[in-house]
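name: query_chain
kind: protein
chains: 1
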Amino acid sequence: MKHEEATLKTRMALAASLRKYMEKKPLGKITVSEIITDCDVNRKTFYYHFEDIYALLKWMLEQEAIEVVKQFDLLVDYEDAIYFVMDYVESNAHILNCAYDSMGREQLKNFFGNDFLKIMKGLINGVEKELGLSVAEDFKNFLCCLYTDAVAGWVVSWFHEKEKISREKAVEYLTLIIRSTLPDVLKNAPKTTEVGI
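structure:
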């Protein structure tokens, strides 16, 4: 077995064990010892792959959702990407609530922030290119942070709330907001200027 395959297999086993324990108890009560015993690996192996249990959780969530979303052509399929995220959140609500209870809202929102930031940056750059614009980089970064903070915060709130809007309504609203605001914002944004002009 190649090193990459062995690494992936080990990481997947550790993630499966973490998922199993998260079904039984809060994230903060799960120990590395429990996970390594369950996977029949040593402590050194765990720490070779992950800094701590939170890093394992982040990797698990990225593999299951974020990496899949990155495969969508967000200019064409962003509605499908939103549906995928909503389905994932609904089917993993217990795991995400367990993480929420241990980490808190802000920490969990920040947890997803970097990945959402990359996705949103790709979407903004794609719309900019599609419209034939050359928007100032600092404005795009600002816009990217604004959208990311809003979407990540809303997703965390959505799965944690007891009374929430349906997934269909959520996708409809998010799609409407992105479709109607992003192109207009970019059209009216400060443009880059060429050197010497």
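note: The chain has a mean pLDDT of 84.
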